[in-house]
Specification:
Blueprint (H helix, E strand, L loop, with lengths): L2 H4 L7 E4 L4 E7 L3 E4 L2 E15 L4 E13 L2 E3 L2 E9 L4 E3 L2 E3 L1 E4 L4 E3 L2 E3 L11 E3 L11 E3 L1
Parallel strand pairs: 1-3, 2-4, 3-4, 4-5, 5-6, 5-7, 6-8, 7-9, 7-10, 8-11, 9-12
Antiparallel strand pairs: 13-14
């Protein structure tokens, strides 16, 4: 199985919004979401993936870890890791992400800001002296 297709597969922890469902307002969650209906407003799935199915219609600001679009999106998309525009995608809005894939045939009108991956800071290490100390003499410091 291709790596790009693995994001499309359904898992037990994936919520599904069917093609007849219309949501107006703020949509957030702590699981992956497959959206084949309509959403107008805000979609926020910070640590999770969003797949906009072929019947999906989104007029919203989107924030997710990964975003795969087969349907139509009007609004800005921010993905913490990756955005994929499949050949049937129609996207109007700006995209901010670390990685992007645009298949041949996808329609995109907007700007793309590819963010550089920032290195994770190393946690500060605490150094404790191993020499015997009196109760008032404890040596603690950071490197």
């Amino acid at each position: 199985m291709e790596a790009s297709k693995s994001l499309d597969t359904f898992r037990a922890d994936t919520a599904h919004i069917g093609r007849s469902v219309i949501v107006k307002g703020e949509l957030s969650g702590s699981e992956d979401l497959y959206l084949d209906g309509e959403v107008e407003g805000v979609i926020e799935l910070r640590g999770h993936s969003l797949v906009v199915g072929p019947n999906g219609r989104v007029r919203a600001r989107v924030l997710a870890r990964d975003v795969i679009i087969h349907g139509k999106v009007e609004g800005n998309v921010q993905a913490l890791d990756r955005v994929e525009l499949r050949k049937s995608a129609v996207v109007q809005g700006d995209i901010v992400t670390r990685r992007i894939v645009i298949e041949d045939g996808a329609f995109f009108k907007g700007g793309v800001d590819v963010q550089k991956e920032t290195p994770k800071p190393e946690p500060a290490r605490t150094v404790v002296s191993t020499t015997p100390a009196t109760p008032t003499e404890v040596l603690v410091g950071t490197k």
